Amino acid sequence: MTLFEELKWRGLIKDTAGEDLEKIINGCNATFYWGTDPTADSLHIGHYSSLITVKRLAKAGHHPILLVGGATGLIGDPRPTAEREIISYEKVQKNFEGIKKQVTELFNGNVDVVNNYDWTKDMNILEFLREIGKYINVNYMLDKDIIKRRLETGITFAEFAYTLLQGYDFLHLYETRNCIMQVEGSDQWGNITTGIDLINKKLGKNAYAFTMPLILDSKGEKFGKSAGNALWLDKNKTSSYEFYQYLINADDVKIEEYLKVFTFLSPEEIMDIMKKHNEHPEERLAQKTLAKEFITDLHGKEEYEKALRISEALFSGNLKSLTSDELHDAFNNIPSSEVKEDKNIIDLLVETSICSSKREAREFVNNNSISVNGEKVNDLEFIIKKENAIVDNFTIIRKGKKKYFVIKHI
Description:
Helix content is 48%, strand content 14%. It has 19 helices and 13 strands. The strands form three sheets. It has a six-stranded mixed sheet, with helices on both faces. It is elongated and about 85 Å long. It starts with a helix and ends with a strand.
């Protein structure tokens, strides 16, 4: 199986440009780029399907450039519904530095990270119109899907011109670094073709590109989105344990797709895993494999083992085996309350809103549905004491099978 065939098998090629694209990909010596605007100081899991495809190409011998749009980030890529909020120069620069550090670590330094602000900051409006705008027809721009969708509600000239800026990026990298191919998510197809058109009209040369389908969950929503919150690649924003929980609960209908997209397992290995998984889906072999491969690649073996250790401790109730850092990772987004003195279990459950009333609290305790620091409590007179807290003066209460609450003794 050639590299191009494998990318197709993994479902990683949607749109293509360039008659010899397959030959270029299989040739394994092309310089190519992937780009993103620095809207935050960390990338998130939505970017990761693209990043891991970039890594596949790099492993095969191609040379990657990661472009972080310090210039385009000041304008904002047109969204389907409304204009993006303008970000300050200082914020964009801070975000650029954060992303640069992140991707450099992810690729072990084997990648060039560039900022399009460097080659656009000194260009004046007349030069922009003469060198770029002169070559792109307005009708051509109006025909692009994202612009057509915004015409009815209105689109600013800044957003309208965004595609010219991104097209110029491709032209600049083509001229200065012999970058002949662009790889992006499918939502960037319109911007990619602008760059290819610009290269052809200005230089008389051919450029290449392919897009990857956007990865969706079983509900048709962008992969990694939860109540509007991204899963960040920065482990200080989203812990490896949080990633583990997300991946281990991936829907069976999507799990084969995720293994193909997010792991470096061979096609034979993936097919073998799916065969075993389908025979015993209750064992969640595919999800466990996905979590292991994903987290190990992103954060390393130690972080994966840490996530697994936290998960096993929570399942077994052996919370006292966890370190301070592991407890913080496990209960980072869990409801918490502070208490100043020792409390009767019933009073504490009500005062911290774990239970809605003393009657409900007594029912949960009597039914063995309350655990304190991993141990069942069925004594209505049980006292929760600071001296019995675990690391960092925490008491962890579990109601039922999955609802956790953190009590901080102060």
